[in-house]
Amino acid sequence: MSLTFESHLQALQKEVDVLVGVSPDAPLSGLPQWDSLAILLVISHFEHAYKMTVTGQEIRQCKTIRELIQLIPQS
User: Which of 19, 53, 54, 60 has the fewest CB atoms within 10 Å around its CB?
Assistant: First the structure.
């Protein structure tokens, strides 16, 4: 069973506080607390929740939360 976008979004927001209440299409660069710690939290979430490895560079290339979630392989 594949998870929905909303499920992925809620799981990510639960782990990365800076993303709570942010629109999936809002620019990450506009978030005052979008920094290296937030990127590490995203990397950690992906490793633990999805057993996948992403790099800081891959995360930094994402402009929105929607793009972060699109990194998750669809099953």
Answer: 53
